[in-house]
Amino acid sequence: KEVQKASAEPKTFSCEPCEKDFQQQSQYDAHMATHVTCSHPGCSFTASGRVVKEHAQEEHINEAEKAERKRMFSSIETPEEIEKWKEARRRNWPSAANAARKAADQEAGAARGDAAPEKSAKEGK
Question: Model-level pTM?
Answer without folding.
Answer: 0.44
